[in-house]
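Q: Sequence in, structure out?
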Amino acid sequence: MQLALFQDNVTMPIRPLKSQLLKWIGNKQRFAHEIVSFFPNSFNRYFEPFLGSGAVLATLAPVDAIGSDIFSPLMEIWRALQENPEQLKQWYEHHWQLASGEQKIEVYERIKASYNTNPNGADLLFLCRACYGGVVRFRQSDGYMSTPCGIHAPISPNAFAKRVDEWHSRTQGTQFLEIHYEEAMAMAQPGDLIYCDPPYMHSQGILYRGQSFELEHLLQLIEQCKHRGVYVALSIDGTKKSGDVLCTLPIPIDLFEREMFVNCGRSMLKRFQMEGQTLEKEIVADRLLLTY
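A: Exactly. Output:
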């Protein structure tokens, strides 16, 4: 692998997108512009097969893209953003009004119970913005969301509506599909760009219903994409720790041409787990690996 120091790479100047639509664990919002700055200067269609919060997609604002995931309630939110943004605003305002009184925690728990009974985008939209620390946790066995209500006040409907308008504009060129990452990557043609941001391997099994995957299989798909002329950028665990174990990953020597670390700041999950404790040793740095 040809390693490249971060400061030695020529990058495109990209303006940060400061408005966050969804709170999501692993959200790349604060440094998405750094990731995008290392994308090719030109490419055809853009693919993001582990869509999550869509921070990189919205920062890039591609003219032709496919954003995908297999998590149905999440994709319901994304399709509403594109096809009926006013409905998305109404979903949020309705739940916000219910929870704006003195019984905020009780209302939050009712909304969470509604979601757990019947997973849907409208409930999930409010829960991800109102839950504690933005850490959206799901039980592996049945998908039960367990995160308690946050201490913060969720943003107002007016403020959220402005974000919807901005994100609707920035994703006009995107087709949102509820498909497995393997299917999405198979659609890419020579000259296309794929950005992969899979869940952390060692610690995110209970988080956000992320697509289950085997790293070795994902790397095989990336190799196939590279061989047919598709650009691939992969964000993966860098200095991420699981407990006291520093994660190491079996990255093939010849698959990627460049590597750099992107400082993600303090771990959101550790901030949730270690309230009141120092987090100096819980810095997360993603490895950004490029096939070009």
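The first strand starts at residue 46 and ends at 48.
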